[in-house]
Amino acid sequence: MHNSSITGNTATNRYRWSYQVDLRQAQSIDVVSLLMPADKFATRFHIDVSLDGSTYYTAARRVDSAGGITGVQLDQTVRARYVKAVADRPDEGGQTGGQMAVSELAVHGSR
């Protein structure tokens, strides 16, 4: 899967949609909450975190999202400056969820 919207194959119509926030400094994080519209949501997504904005690792996965508010408990408390929600599904036309849209993203934890 490409991280770029340019895959070199215009027939695929596939891309991985993501939404990233910069917390401006590293913080301890244990929960990420997403608000996604009822008609545009990822049924499967994961949360990536990073200290430097270039090296990311996956801190949690959700496989049963249905839109609305979704709270994601991270696998463990992490320190991160950058938090990214990455859609895994839907990844082609005709799937439940349409296309992921994020109305709000909140990061919870302690400084």
UniProtKB/TrEMBL annotation:
Residues 1-110 form the F5/8 type C domain. It holds the Pfam family F5_F8_type_C_2. InterPro entries: FA58C, Galactose-bd-like_sf. It comes from the Bacteria. Residues 89-111 are annotated as: Disordered. This is F5/8 type C domain-containing protein. It comes from Kutzneria buriramensis.
